[in-house]
Amino acid sequence: MEQSASAPRSTTQTLLLASGFGGLLFIATFLVLGVVAHPYHPVQEAISALEFTSLGLAQRLNFVIFGLLLIAFAFALRIELHGGRGARLIPLFQFVSGAAVIGDGLFIHEPLHLICDLIAFNATLLVLFLFAWRFWPDARWKPWAYYSIATALLMMSFLTAFGLLNHPGGPAGTMEKLATATRTLWSVLLTLKLLRGARL
Question: Where are the alpha helices (DSSP H) in the chain?
Answer without folding.
Answer: 11-18, 22-36, 56-80, 89-106, 112-135, 142-164, 172-195
